[in-house]
TrEMBL record:
Name under which the protein is recorded: Ubiquitin carboxyl-terminal hydrolase
Residue span of region Disordered: 293-313
Keyword annotations of the record: Hydrolase, Protease, Thiol protease, Ubl conjugation pathway
Family: Belongs to the peptidase C12 family.
Catalyses which reaction(s): Thiol-dependent hydrolysis of ester, thioester, amide, peptide and isopeptide bonds formed by the C-terminal Gly of ubiquitin (a 76-residue protein attached to proteins as an intracellular targeting signal)
InterPro entries: Papain-like_cys_pep_sf (IPR038765), Peptidase_C12_UCH (IPR001578), Peptidase_C12_UCH_sf (IPR036959), Ubiquitinyl_hydrolase_UCH37 (IPR017390), UCH_C (IPR041507)
Record PANTHER family: UBIQUITIN CARBOXYL-TERMINAL HYDROLASE (PTHR10589), UBIQUITIN CARBOXYL-TERMINAL HYDROLASE ISOZYME L5 (PTHR10589:SF16)
Active site: residue positions: 89 (nucleophile), 165 (proton donor)
Residues the record marks as site: Transition state stabilizer: 83
């Protein structure tokens, strides 16, 4: 392989612009705040969901899933790729939805060629083909946060690290499937038409979340849906259309910020602030330092009261 994969955020703007750069048309991601079928249903045409959760490191892979059942035949009859490399699971999850919706969704020339090329491979070879795709890897890496301190392509997780994992759920051939490249095969959760998906997926997600302590709140759920602007135009809903256009503008700005390294700028800014404080005399400088320490301590205490700690993805 000619290069590594970096971590990307579980963010609707990141995922939407990532698939657009891969050539997918008229599809977007939207973050779900609650586990309510109606919230999912109101998004219109739904292709699947991407679920992010803290991965239980050290847990041995079982021949029997904790929920649902392995569908070994489906591993060859739909697009399912084994995960063969670290940090690629976010892009792999969204492709697990979209490549199984070819026909409903315009996935574009490049992804269609990739699917046709790897379609007859077993899951392990599909995973290797995905990991070695220069196009998919370069697009994926273009959405990584800029950092001068850590090279995520070389970093190895330790037992003390919080490790997060993306998986996909979607309805294929009237069955609800869980597509997780770390599992032996697609996991079937029973009969499920596309229309039934909002009602069938929520109990599955609730059961998964219930396996964690009640204090664990670091989950994220993104819905893969038809571009919401399409329905707004069809209905003449100018308010929703304007809101969605504004959302796209904000996503572009946020994605641009992710790619920029602000360390040099912040360093120069701090130099200017310190120089200004020193020019006012040591008394002003010392007071500024003490005030800053007090504010930092207060914020830490407030975060602790709210139960916010550690890093989140």
């Amino acid at each position: 392989m000619s290069g590594g994969w970096t971590t990307i955020e579980s963010d609707a703007g990141v995922f939407t612009h990532l698939i657009e750069k891969l050539g997918v048309k008229d599809v977007q991601f939207d973050e779900l705040i609650t586990l309510e079928p109606d919230e999912l249903r109101q998004l219109g045409k739904i292709y699947g969901v991407i679920f992010l959760f803290k991965y239980p490191t050290g847990e041995a892979r079982s021949d029997t899933p904790k929920d649902g059942s392995f569908d070994q035949d489906a591993a060859n009859n739909l697009f399912f790729a084994a995960q063969t490399i670290q940090n690629a699971c976010g892009t792999q999850a969204l492709l697990s939805v979209l490549l199984n919706k070819d026909g409903e969704v315009d996935i574009g020339k490049d992804l269609r060629e990739f699917k046709e090329f790897s379609g007859d491979f077993p899951p392990e070879f599909r995973g290797e083909t995905l990991s070695n795709s220069d196009l998919i890897r370069e697009v994926h890496n273009s959405f990584a946060r800029s950092s001068p301190f850590v090279d995520e392509t070389q970093r190895t997780a330790t037992e003390d690290d919080d490790v997060y994992h993306f998986i996909a759920y979607t309805s294929i051939n009237n069955k609800l499937y869980e597509l997780d490249g770390l599992q032996l095969a697609p996991i079937s959760h029973g009969a499920c038409t596309i229309d039934e998906f909002p009602d069938k997926i929520i109990p599955v997600l609730q059961r998964r979340i219930s396996r964690y302590p009640a204090t664990e709140i670091r989950f994220n759920l993104l819905a893969c849906v038809q571009d919401l602007r399409i329905r707004a135009r069809e209905l003449g809903d100018t308010e929703t259309l304007e809101a969605e256009e504004q959302k796209r503008t904000e996503w572009l700005w946020e994605n641009a910020l992710r790619r920029h390294n602000f360390v040099g700028f912040v360093g120069e800014l701090l130099k200017g602030v310190v120089k200004d404080k020193l020019s006012q005399g040591n008394g002003a400088y010392d007071k500024w330092i003490e005030d800053s320490k007090a504010k930092t301590k207060k914020r830490a205490e407030e975060r602790q009261k709210q139960g916010i700690s550690g890093d989140d993805v």
